[in-house]
Amino acid sequence: MGEALRRPTSLDVSDPHLYQDDTWRPLFAQLRRDDPVHYCEASPYGPYWSVTRYDDIFAVELDHQNYSSASELGGIQVADQPKGQERPSFIRMDPPGHTAQRRTVAPIVAPSNLANFEALIRTRTSAVLDALPRGETFDWAERVSVELTNMMLATLFDFHFEDRAKLTWWSDVAIANVESPDAVVHSEAERTAELIKMGEYFRRLWDARIDAPPTFDLVSMLAHSPATRNLEPREFIGTIGLLIVGGNDTTRNSMSAGLLALCENPEQFELVRARRELIPSLVSETIRYHTPVLHMRRTARNDVELAGRRIKQGDKVVMWYISGNRDEDKIERADEFIIDRAKPRQHLAFGAGIHRCVGDRLAEQQLRILWEEVLARDLRFQIMGPPQRLYSNFIRGIRSLPVRIVN
Question: Where in 351-397 does DSSP place strands (E)?
């Protein structure tokens, strides 16, 4: 009886307004305290379990025998993909299919290859920062975050550089909540039509490279690998879309979130100015504090117990990274932005286990170089207005961040 009284009434934390309005913190604090594995009986996406504590999220991540990512069971978001319009990819697979496809693309972000990117990323970052206006307001998200990430994506795909803005567009299409008034597409049919155009563009690149000797870019790697060379059309679109979103959203939004957090916590900005060796820690803290991917969903393959709650086969199980990264039982002063933490890489923003973000080290490298070059120029910023946040319960996006360089 006492346990039942302590449980909150059914809380639905899937409402995108919570993240667009940045009002999510108290709800997750309540769930972590009172009902860390919480059953929401009714939502626009159907019933689902919210897993809100760090250790419980980690347990689900590591148990792919009981918790499935499979597209045919619903995939990786609290919202199911529309029937007949599913776009499978290796993030929406369990082993062994997941393993072979992930292994195909992993070499491009291996440590040995990241060293090859260092000089190119630094040159581009320097050029973008040097071109920023002084003494006038500009949009950091557009001028810096979007520009740097789509250049990197173009390199990874060996994509026509003059067309690289298409990569940002397709990423936005893939993750858009079609119910938002300012969404880039307003129906699943419109989304599908745009992603088919993406598939047609990449199919032309694919066809050219499959008939040529293998090269070290994602399209050629996919085209020549036995695990991916014969993808069905929807899986082809899903796989290309995954790589675009994965290479774009974490980095782009962390670049904007990092500047916002530093300006809101000026003592931390001064600390990293004085101690440049803290830049890698700043990068990790930014990714934890912001948490660009709000959640990942699994589907229970079996009846299973988690933190004393009985989850039934077929239930949706949603791991809220945004909550796990604020778990005070795991991360001291978790609601604060602290760049000199003892364990800065202890966070869930990249996931864990077999589905841990394949490009995590590349994202960290791009962010590290950005802050190294900002500090090398001693750039100082003023936030000129509130950020415009994305209407989404999946990506914690910053669409616009007006700033001014003040020195």
Answer: 381-383, 388-389
Q: Which of 83-92, 168-177, 247-256, 364-373 has the lowest mean pLDDT?
A: 83-92
Which CA distances in Å does 303 have to 299, 314, 378, 389? 11, 8, 56, 37
Q: What does DSSP assign to residue 395?
A: B
Nearest to 163 by CA among 117, 132, 204: 204
CA distance 282 to 99: 32
Give the C-alpha separation, 239 to 258, whole Å: 29
Query: What's the Rg (C-alpha) of the chain?
Result: 21
Closest CA to 198 of 206, 209, 208, 210: 206
Phi, psi torsion values for 22, nearest 5 degrees = 60, 45
Whole-model pTM? 0.95
CA 134 to chain centre: 31
Q: Cα–chain-centroid distance for residue 184?
A: 18
Token pair belonging to 292: 């660009």
* Bridge partners for 295 per DSSP: 320
362 close to 114: Cβ distance less than 8 angstroms: yes
Rounded CA-CA distance 273/374 in Å is 10
